[in-house]
Amino acid sequence: MPVQILSDPQIIQPYLSDESKVTGQAQSISFPESEAEIREVLLTVRQAHQTLTMQGARTGITGGAVPTGGHILNLSKLNRITGMGWDAERKCFLLSVQPGVQLNQLKKAIAEKSFDTTGWSAQAQSALRRFQQSGAWFLPADITETTASIGGMVSTNASGAKSYRYGSMRRHVLGLRLLLANGKSLSLNRGEQFAQGRQLSLRLDDGSQITGQLPAYQMPQVKNASGYYVHENMDLLDLFIGSEGTLGIVTEVTLALAPQPGFTWGMMAFFTREQNAMAYVHALRALPQAEQPSAIEFFDQACLALIRSEQEQLHAHQNIPALNPAAQSAIYTEFTAESLPERDEAINQVADLLNAAGGDEQATWLALSRQDLEKLVAFRHAIPESINRIIAERKRQYPNLTKLGSDMAVPDDKLDWVMKLYEDTLNQTGLEALKFGHIGDNHLHVNILPRNEAEYTQGKQLFEQWAREIVAAGGTISAEHGIGKLKHALLAELYDAHALIEMRTLKRCFDPQGLLNPGNMFSLEA
Amino acid sequence: MEIVVCIKQVPATTRVQLDPRTRTIIREGVELMLNPFDAYALEEALRLREAHGGTVSVFTMGIPSAVVMLREALAMGADQAILLTDRRFAGADTLATATTLATAIRKLGTVDLILCGRQAIDGDTAQVGPELAEKLGIPHITAISKIEQVSTESLICQKMVDEGYVRLRIQLTALLTVVKEINTPRFPTLAGFRRAQKSDILIWKVEDLDVDPGRIGLEGSPTQVISTFVPEQHKTSIVVEGTLSEIASQILASLQQQAGREQHG
After folding, report:
1. Which residue of A has its CA nearest to B185?
2. How do residues B141-175 score in pLDDT, each as one tens digit?
3. Is CATH 3.40.462.40 the right assignment for the domain spanning A263-472?
4. Looking at the partner chain, which of A321, A361, A369 has a beta carbon nearest the beta carbon of B190?
5. I need a surface site. Which of A56, A477, B220, B240 has the fewest CB within 10 A?
């Protein structure tokens, strides 16, 4: 039976937006369940001279999954874990996963070591038996939004708090199966096909080749999710990770798992002065590699005040003890250890760092059990969710308002500079704002909460000002959320007009008609 | 105020495995956690001590690795921790557990208040608290959601009942079991952890207690589990797909079908 292409507006309607809350438009939608069905849809769409926008779980916040007319290729029904393997060289288990699998579904299967093995090869079944007999494993690409789809995480090169230690999605993807705009497929594993300098020549499954030129720009040397990932002699697998679905359709992902550390512990340190919090961050980052935390996260005074007021007024966050009003900022760190004595020794070491930085052991919470760790993770997640609630409320009076959340990162030596930039400019404008996020990677999310339309415009202007200054300082305008449809103007701050032309040229090598995910990253028409 | 808190390690999973011979829960090699209700009991004890002075002693009966949990209780602020561990304590039912705990608490000396969680989430019996009170010959109230007006002789507390709350006065020494509405447990602090590292955990075996060995452990347990089984699931989930009106009519049809079945059945 051919895959259904549905054009009932009632069916399409719920799929016109994602977490960016931007609403697009589309003429039709499909929910393919196999690569063959995707190809069928692709050919139909191409014949009709339409474009195609891919969707996973629609949790992105830059509008990457919002359609701009044409067809919606919703991949949520390609949601099977299709096999397992053992990588003898890397000494890790591999999982083959369809793009519509959600992160929480995958995490649960890995933790419980329980998979639906229908259709698995004998080799995969035997790898599973080995997996079930070995210790605990996990997927290090662990983002906060666990309902995200794996396909979405690949296309945006997603990262999270623990990327400080484990890196972004890229590092854990060992292979992709792709369907290109011309209907041809490509299985690409890490270490197989490389660029020659910036010369691109990619062999497809049928033996044909795609050739072209990679853009010549140098990427900022920071955590980054802005524009194509390119460098000389690169592994061509990396080109597709973070390409926001503009080069091909991911139909299967091979992920590497890592052995689960024996013990994970977290620490939430509250500081009465922000400069002490910063001193603590610098001290943590100076630790030897083996002693580094997995995550270093920051919360400013406004975040703590928000949680506190919701505890008092809404009776929310009731599993978190009341926050001390004297706290001006907090640093969350997470560490791992292989044994209890090792853990306890590490706690003592970190305590010494904290004391030297002017921290307070009495005002520092320890999460030693999984249950307490989960509470602190919920604490982190509560802040963006509370911000969304505030914006939704203000939107009733000013329908044009959206959340203004920054995603910029700077090099290590520019951390103090960027903190001061945020502080000074926010004070000058008087805008309401909260700062939180991945301070270990010099990557804070500054969220401006506009109280009216004038402030909304002012906030957007401030973002552009920051983008200019941060790019000049060697930073990036998007470290993890991607460009999508909302950050074109910021990408133009990072790369010049020539770089954008090179990116368009690269896209045309793979997708001459601009069929796939139009409007993501840049518009094909200059 | 001398306060005792009884805490227990429970499996941190809902997929509990049972020993086919003793039909008791296997605790070795399983991720364990502090029974959630006991965390509320400990928090309440610490708050009472902060308000009225005194000490908080934490007891657990369990396997040797339970010292990890006791150390966390010390890091939260408990003054001392005692582990009752001995092969001969193993396999105890609620009565044998209460007997063991009662002798241990007597050995401790003067106690004003004993706090327990409402129940452990593994056995779900909610019996150990009340049985312990009976063994010690002191009054008890279960399901406490608030403690107020503490004096040297008595305290007033609020008990959760189906219809709402009941305020009760109880003579001290007393035992209370608490529900989760009573407070929000604190995290251990770094300072508490450092203090706890230096504290000794007392370990008591059968010989350390004035107890009849015939009344403890598997041998001293009048109740025995004769079989365990996974309850049959009668609930099923149906995924309804389609447009809003299609979904609505499918739900309606399904409800009508169910109503029809109930009428005829």
Report:
1. A321
2. 999 999 999 999 999 999 999 999 999 999 999 99
3. yes
4. A361
5. B240
